[in-house]
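Annex B, item 7. Sequence and structure tokens for protein A, then protein B.
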Amino acid sequence: MQPDGATHFRVWAPTPREVRLLVERVPGEPTEVCLQAEGDGYYSASVPDAGAGTRYRYRLDGRAAADPASRFQPEGPSGPSQVVDAGGYRWRDAAWRGVTLPGQVLYEMHIGTFTREGTWRAAIEHLADVRQTGVTTVEIMPVAEFAGRFGWGYDGVFMYAPTRLYGTPDDVRAFVDEAHAVGLGVILDVVYNHVGPSGSVLRDYASAYFTDRYDNEWGDPLNFDGPDAGPVREFFASNAAYWIDEFHMDGLRLDAVQSIHDRSPEHIVAVLTGEARRAAGGRGVLIVAEHERQDVRMLRPIEDGGYGVDAAWNDDFHHSASVAVTGRREAYYTDHSGAPQEFISAAKYGYLFQGQRYAWQKQPRGTRTRGLPPAAFVNFVENHDQLANSADGSRTHRRTSPGRYRAVTAMLLLLPGTPMLFQGQEFGASSPFLYFADHDGALAAAVQEGRAQFVAQFTSLASREAQAHLPAPHDPATFERCKLRWDERDTHVTHRRLHEDLLALRRTDAAFAGQAPGGVDGAVLAPEAFLLRFGAPAARDERLLLVNLGRDVVADSFAEPLVAPPEGCGWRVHWSSESPMYGGIGVPEIVGAGGWRIPGHSAVVLAPMEMTDGGTRTD
């Protein structure tokens, strides 16, 4: 919109022979407006009396279509676009300085299932609860407009339009504003590797949005390096800046970067990150990526030939943790054993696969992580994909013993990587998270069949009986089952305390807060037990994390220098997952005159205590 109340319309449409603008100043009564051809397929016009709320479409060779850069689709993808006044919202976050990577605790959130209402406004009511847990930044699953009444958001078709299912664009702004008010950053998951199978108008305007030169498992790849790729690159780079500028987002999570294909001298991901940072001005911006092949080039600085991304999801940590606590090694878990050394290596190096053979894919996987900060690796034991891939969507705490779950939670929240929780994880949510997508007809059947084929890679889910029990993605009941029950936050108190206390340790103990390169070392103590030694500038601040996912470990001694306390000190229990506050059975002495006893299915933090000359503690 312009200051005089007019609206400037501009569109790239090289494919149709004729392009007109249809403006509904009166609802249901469109007025045709001639557009000026700018050349290179661009058309534009400044239209008076077409302020906020005005609905419009373009007419392409006689057929009406929504604006590919629509800011809002109040009736969904097949309806008209609506003019939005981005400057109409009165922000309260002028003092907010954005977010940077060190010290972050992420929280993945799906607005449609985060509350019973499934709206931005309802989600606002629980932001303070999320912050109280110790979370610093929420990561919102994609919200670009998509077809249907519900979905994960990865089938977006209008990249600039927040879906009407969760509220208005100003509701998005109110959510971000309130998040900042309670001390939470907000980053948005964006999909720049494909568009959804239903409702997209991009091809009607320009076939050059897509290319057939690459493979993509979700749809036609986007054209970032072929003929007429310039406007396509501009469209998506501007989109990255748009969410930062007009919605005050604190960053982006880039979905499936391995499927963003670009052989240009400057990779589009580097362009996206640069545009997002420029749009933020002086605010800190956090860019997180998902890259299945674990190519760390995306994490290198742009000036060093990288893409300038801050952090990346670490599937390796998840897979090791899942195998360790459930014992299941099917499909893409087969290369992980859940052994202690895997967690020690994850703490020290981030990715476990850094170029060696990955048997599941019968090829090398990953690249060297040397020189990258520990915080660059986002660790998790739950996310939307991995929960849904368990077929029944069950939470991790339901697929393992309580003690193992508490122990793996301690690992997640105290390791030097950046931890991420999935909505409701902090209070032991009973609600599952399943795959849901509201399609109909042949598309619904195809999606359901495709989902069944995907989970069949897990041997236990390939049987006829298991396949018959897979929830239908298009069934509204599948979606409804996934909604959080916020009353559980008050009844599942032991889960909540566990997460709050561990994240408090992470903030206040220098050894855990540091996230310094080389700040942690580890040793295997038993087949399912290990230690991690966290360094600190002062010896009294050093910490020893003991994790035992097996039976009790009883030892007279350990021939391992990492167990030795600082000079003049002994070890005392600083925190234990076996505290009754968390549902444990009690906190025994770990180090005594007769040696060590590390309880099974537990995690314990030891801190130094000064000793007298006679070997007794002074506190």
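Protein B:
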Amino acid sequence: MMSSFIKDLPALGVSLLMNLSVLAAFNFVVFEISRTDPVNTIVSDLQDLTQEERLNFAESITEDQVGNGGASDGMPPSLSAATAVAGNEASMQEKLEEALNPEIAQLAEAAVPRFDGHDIVSTVSIKGNTDNAMGGTGGVEGAMDRVAFEIRQSLKDRKTLVIWLMDASGSLDKRRAAIADRFDNIYKQLNTGGTTEGLYSMVVSFGDKTNILTPEPIQDVAALSEVVRHKIKTDETGHEYVFGALKMVLEKYRGWQRNQGPWNRMVFIVTDERGDDFEQYLEDVISLAKRSQTKVYTIGNAAIFGRQKGYVHWVGENGYEEDIPVDQGPESAFPDGLQLPFVGARPDWRLNQMSSSYGPYALTRLCAETGGLYLITEESRGYGFDRAIMRRYAPDYRPVRVQEQEIAKNPAKAALVTVASATYQESLPVPTLEFRAYNDNILKNDLAEAQKAPAEAVYAMGRMYEALKAGESSRDKLREDRWRAAYDLAMGRVLAMRVRFLGYNQMLAAMKLSPKSFEKKDDNMWRLVASDKIESGPEMRKGGELARTYLKRVIDEHPGTPWALMAERELSTPLGWTWEEFSQPIPGSTVLKGNDQEVARLLLADEERKKEDNKKRVMQRKNVPKL
């Protein structure tokens, strides 16, 4: 594997450089893309703004009050700044060949690779004043206070039709109920100013299908609350076709009461996901909303930083609990963060569920383009960050086609997006760190099995590094803080991971060739632990130093951000390995060691117990819903 990798390096470098050179030429080529549904061309309000102007959009966010995570000894600066809030069958090597080989995946075909309707990463724009300035109290309450203000402002101008577009999935039961509880209050606030005479409202639910629950808009607040509480049937398909639902409603009611003069239209989307059909309908919906002068607002969740999946905690009637994955992010239109495990470090699930401080791309861009707001009513359960700091790192809110052109012009961006997309398709393995030594045969078998996946990972990391390095000359041309932080973190983590995986493989090979002896007679287990001593040769020690240089630059230049937090976590774990011995009885017994026959009998009994436990879990999961 390694010899093949080394032979490929010159060809890879030439191919990447040739491919990147072709990008500039293809930037001037216009591609016709056929669609089943015709797309209306729109001109984005955000398209022609400079980056500085885009970042100056005031943020409008309604947020739940959350407690600070307890600071532990030795907590890094970015972790102190953060708030702790509550498959494919193809191998990684094949995925990388597809993503990085210019002959297989031509960047010029669509400027840069991007995800389809199931995998795309999203960017978001948030306009308006901060909710705190409006006296917001956070959560659904704060959002509804802001809703009341927005409706009141609309009614001062002209009569208004308000459309409530409700997510019918089971994960929204509590939020819909909370909003119904607030209906009386917000409409009472409006009535105080004598402004409800020209206000009509309607309720539409969406999931796999769209259901218009009030075909004729109504003024009766009690009836409105009743519809939300009792007329929305829970959708169990797991589909969230919000953009198709909005398109249907905009087309159906664009001429409503036109003979009575001009009307304002406002849509309030209530959801906790990004929507499954944004790639198909987003541009159409933006165009329709603009033509009908409809402002769109979203009462939703913060997008997960750099990731597609968030989790909703579910408790069944039988007491079984599970975190169900839902599509809640990420926050940028193209993948710019590598999905890599933290090898050798203590697991911290909060790193995989960090808040991006923004909503998902399609919904928030829809709100921004139509003059509405994306109101964050619920944060992720992972780490959160100071929004004053995160404003410097706002995602690009412009249309995908505009971003494609800019990414194609910068080899550093193109390389980063290409490599990041490969890690979204297939994740790297987390290597086994503990090995059974009940006897020599068990130890050798465990070592041989553990070497398989990391051997492939070493090759993958080499490919990733060469791809990123091909764009390094353009790194200093990156003007945006977000891109610089993402590129440096990617380079630092890839180098660090490469050193770790290569060192890991060499440690296992040496132990398999000549097993170490225990210092204590009762010890029967070996554990690999991180060490400052890198024994994989001078080239890897040099790579380790270069990794530290990149990671330290991220920490120094981007303090208090998710990129700095991940760089600190990477640096907190040494890049080398050492063996540590300990004792652990063979599962299901008090026996520490034995011959092949005795150990096989005990392990077989343990396997049977695991199978029974798995059957029980399968039964418990029978009623887990799709959200």
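Comment on protein B: The two ends are 42 Å apart (CA to CA).
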